[in-house]
Amino acid sequence: MSDTPAWAVDQGTVRGGNVATDAAMAADAGFRALGLALDQLLQLGVERAHATLTDAGLAVSGIQGLPDLNVDPDETHGRYVAALDAAAALDASGCLVGTGPIRDRTIEAADGIVRDRLARLVDRIGIVQLTDVPWSALDGLRYERDRFDTGDVPVARLRRAFHEAGYRGSYECEILLRMPREERPQFLRDTHAWLVANCGTLRARASGWTGGL
Q: Domain 8-211, CATH 3.40.50.2300 — does that match?
């Protein structure tokens, strides 16, 4: 059983331009799995995506780009079916969907519901996505992220809380930042190194890609 989880990263963080480039960059940085964007996955095709990631030595951590849960299900049903079918075919941990206030529900009420459901379902969570945000963005309710070593979210402490609650599954990082393309490979290597140094000392489950491909 490994003492260090095999970290995943999503395409929104890598931003190489396509699945093949993102897979190569993620693998070079030390990541063991890649979270796929639904539109790019469907354009490439499930079989080609699987071959591309296998060639890079990566698993699929999850699929993103689904409509938020508060969108009319009659309008989004097809995309959810396509994403779930692809996740099953690629043995992904799951699909990422957005939560939050719905209709007259406040942000506080929505957050409370999410916390309650997570507390009841720790042993059924397929993957946990980690990110960091500065307080200025949180206060302004802006969709901005930050590097793990500069943001204000206690990422390492949250990771420990999941572990102490019994979670032994996979983790994926998502840091949505603009930067010159030539700086992104080093940024990915630095991100992976930070995760290993600050969040990689807790014992992780050996099944699935968490313990290796």
A: no
